[in-house]
Amino acid sequence: MHHLVIIDSFKGSVSSKEAALAVRQGILQADSTATVDWSPGADGGEGTLEMLFENGFSQVEAKAIDLAGRPIRAVYAQNNKRVVIEVARACGLGQVEPGDQRFHLNTRGVGRIVRHAMQAGATEIFLALGGTGTTDGGLGLLYEVGATLLDAKNRPVTWTVNPLLETEHIILPKLPVQLHVLADVIAPYAGERGAAKVFGPQKGLTATEIELLDTQLERVGNLLGVNGVAGAGAAGGLGGAAFALGADIQSGAAFLLGQIEFERRLAVADYVWTGEGKLDLQTTLGKLPGIVRAQANQAGIPCVMLAGRVEQRDERALICASIHDVGEEVTLDSKMTGMRLARRAKQITQRLGKSDIS
């Protein structure tokens, strides 16, 4: 039997590559004659670059700054003149340090990476959005690629506070590249389902700060002409800023699967394996496992879905199972997670053809 494994990371536990290799190990333990084709998986957030580095993209390093202005060296992926930037490398929530004023963090570092890629000759730049700690409407990105941001008195913004508070006039540049946004979030720029109100709490913003930022996002969204655009609220408004520069907004998972020739590899598989840390309603709304399962169904290939927690079972998968046995404590320990992934893959391989597993 030939198995194809494309699995996302189990956040806080194992990377997508580690998860895929653990599943591969379990399959081969159960069936030493099996062949296993595998790849790390991602849908635009964590793990995106690793997925591309394993599939023909080269690694490029750029000098930039993080979301609080600290100097960093960030890497991005390049294949000929096509570049993919994982924006969390410059403005990721994991970069926030004690003492940082979360309300004022910005995306200027993302803009510096984009500028580096343009100067290096890129003609297409894909911004993979996800896992950010910023809510600046993407104004930091705009500033670094040449936009003019002015306050109410036509003075340049100071960057001593969140630029959403000061920006009253915006003059956008015309970039020499085609921008694309990769996102699995359809949130608008502002409003009840917008960047601040939906994602502000997980970024450590207070209720008062969220209300203030939402008001400013509504105002700046009108300046940019992005209010009401699905996906404009991704990554604290980065999606909207890129859209204002001419970017389209597309599924990160679908794009990345295309880059690794998923359809070709799927066509020769007997079984496809996918999953992530938690399977829930969001899984079917643009997340990698949901898209892998959907394409497998279209191709008539049975799909196995694994997760640390299964909050909502996907009945269209052949098997949809937790890696933890009944009564077993759910753990984020990477070694234990890898062992349980391999164990469950071994058990399933031994019992393929059944519709469920305990």
Largest sheet data? 6 strands, mixed
Mean pLDDT score, rounded?
93
> What is the CATH third-level topology name of the largest domain?
Glycerate kinase, domain 2
Give the helix tally: 13
Give the full name of the CATH homologous superfamily of the largest domain: Glycerate kinase, domain 2
Strand content: 15-25%
Report on the structure:
There is one protein chain. The protein is an alpha/beta fold and 358 residues long. It folds into 2 domains: 130 residues, Rossmann fold (3-Layer(aba) Sandwich); 198 residues, Glycerate kinase, domain 2 (Alpha-Beta Complex). It is built from 13 helices and 13 strands. The chain has a 6-stranded mixed β-sheet with strand order 3-4-5-6-9-10. It has a 5-stranded parallel β-sheet with strand order 2-1-11-12-13, with helices on both faces. It has a two-stranded antiparallel ribbon with strand order 7-8. α1 links the parallel β1 and β2. α1 runs parallel beside α13. The mean pLDDT is 93.
